[in-house]
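Board notes (copied after class):
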Amino acid sequence: MPKCPNCNKEVYFAERVTSMGKDWHRPCLRCEKCKKTLSAGSHSEHGGKPYCNNPCYSALFGAGGYGRGGTESHKY
């Protein structure tokens, strides 16, 4: 039985969500920054951890000078 990478408990077939090559519990697949629940295939991965595409991933790892505006859009 596979183990969830977030909580390390067994993931049963009925509750399984497969993402990033691993099996997760649905509530355990969350953005590392904002903790929003993610759906499989609609998020990005960095360092083995899931992030929501917008705004978290683009603000943290996007190109400098771009993003959602404000202070996070410029990297010095």
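Comment from the instructor: The two ends are 46 Å apart (CA to CA). DSSP finds one helix and four strands in the chain.
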